[in-house]
């Protein structure tokens, strides 16, 4: 309800409204400064005086879409006997049922949102309408308030147009409906959210292949070196055995002589 003080005369006030709104306007003129106050308006007004001022109130129910919503608040000044006024204009726009903007990732036909776990994600339901629509969210037919309550992982922002998740987990899979309504109409766009386990990126895959190949090469080289060491030890043992056998024969021959 706009409040107008006629101690600031000569001004023009503009009220923005939507077709079908109820408009309540009150204006007051201080008794110490003005003889009386009245509305220059053909419709019905009511007296709404206070202890210190004269007041007039105007109530317009279900305002229509017309261009001549213009009227004046008038008061007679005590010291000058001049009528002072404040002018009012109401700008009324056409009422419109809500609709979904293209920047949303929900739609009336339904969309599919695939999210990698555990990354954050959001569901956007950007809408317009006159008057401004009210938005509520449902998950699998249940009010989203039950999920948001005492849960710092899920939140609403931007006048409930964005449902935001800090982490993608399987418990957040499901059908999310954006319930949008004003007094003109109602829509319910939705999205199906699918949470996927994190897949390896191409760079991760290449890194894994490189590490695996390097590991295999190291194992092969180690095996080859181990075989060489074993063979070397065997050959060394054979040479020692031959040398000992030759010494044995030599000593035996000396004894015979």
UniProtKB/TrEMBL annotation:
One Pfam family in the UniProt entry: I-set
TM ranges: 207-230
Domain of life from the UniProt record: Eukaryota
Keyword terms of this UniProt record: Glycoprotein, Membrane, Receptor, Signal, Transmembrane, Transmembrane helix
Domain Ig-like: 98-201
Name used for this protein in its record: Vascular endothelial growth factor receptor kdr-like
